[in-house]
Amino acid sequence: MARIERVELSMVDLAPKVKRTDAIQSFVSQETPMVRITDSDGAVGMGYSYTIGTGGSSVMRLLADHLCPRLIGQDASGVEAIWHDLEFSTHATTIGAITSIALAAIDTALWDLRCRKANLPLWRMAGGARAAAPCYTTEGGWLHIPAQALIDDALAAREKGFTGSKVKIGKPTPGEDAARIGALRDAMGPEYEIMTDANQAFSRDTARRRAEALRPFDLAWIEEPLPADDIQGHVDMARAAAMPIAVGESLYSVRHFAEYIARDAASIIQVDVGRIGGITPWLKVAHMAECFDLPICPHFLMELHVSLVCAVQNGRYVEYIPQLDDITGETLRIANGMAHAPETPGLGIDWDHGALRARAIDEFNVDIRKAI
After folding, report:
1. What is the domain range of residue 364?
2. Packing angle of the helix pair 79-89, 279-291 (nearest 10 deg)
3. Is omega for the bond preceding 95 within 30 degrees of 0, making it cis?
């Protein structure tokens, strides 16, 4: 039985590759907490999570002061037991983003360690449903981008084999949103999938008006039309809207997903490893969704989510938003619009350790070797 002997913490800050805007914010920074776990056999696992610009320092203090010291001496193979122990130890701050982001960094490191010791890639260890999954792109669909540029990006994506594009909505009037989406539909034809994302910007009345204005365009989904904690509003939207309702990036607990699913409040499940608290709860949500014939189309983190989408039977899409290129070597392989799950043992992310050290913010570098 190999025990955890050392936990190393760091954080890097990554700037977006392109300007990213939606109806409520501009994405200017990705704070990326990193966790490196070493066991008594000398095996190492690397995990991470992310913010979109705020909260990184709080995540790092939670990891350094409260969570990671509890790992020392634990059986590294007991991933489920460790996750529940850590969640319970933070019961006063769960359920919420800071705690879930911290848990995710640890849990992904433990899964990386587990898969490496088994000499298996994550997608096989976690289920092995398929070796590749289709992509849709979000990088060319931000809210500030004019209609012709949306079209140009979608045409280029289709040439590469992508089957869909996501476009942010939330312009001042329904007509403006409809004009952009209508122009894209006219240019791309009926076969190309168009996803839309409101980023929780609407109230109940405006959400219904937007959904009605977008009814003619046969959308793959409308994402987060309402604040994520308004479950009843999403129930009503799901009954009234012509297109499927997608939720998940702003849900931080398996129980939140359970209520959405039980109440038919969403039909596209976008569970995010970095927001739900790691791979362990991510898989629970995916399997729960499968029981209700609901697809998994996770939010962001394509370099990690490709393996999980490929692990489960109901994984449908990988969202194309590259973000780790500056701190990795070999990047995610995409061919003919299909993202291929890495075959290397572990998470399959080729970390550039020199780049990580160069970008690490000194105040968050912590080396833990003693238990609480």
Report:
1. 4-119+352-368
2. 100
3. yes
| Residue 36 covered by a domain | yes
For the chain, 372 residues long, give each residue's pLDDT as a single digit of tens.
899 999 999 999 998 888 899 999 888 899 999 999 999 999 999 999 999 989 999 999 999 999 999 999 999 999 999 999 999 999 888 888 999 999 999 999 999 999 999 999 999 999 999 999 999 999 999 999 999 999 999 999 999 999 999 999 999 999 999 999 999 999 999 999 999 999 999 999 999 999 999 999 999 999 999 999 999 999 999 999 999 999 999 999 999 999 999 999 999 999 999 999 999 999 999 999 999 999 999 999 999 999 999 999 999 999 999 999 999 999 999 999 999 999 999 999 999 999 999 999 999 999 999 766
Active site positions, annotated = 168, 299
Q: Residue 63: inside a domain, yes or no?
A: yes
> Are 327 and 357 within one domain?
no
Structural domain count of the chain: 2
d(CA 86, CA 108): 14
Closest CA to 285 of 319, 308, 318: 308
Is the entire prediction scored with pTM above 0.85?
yes
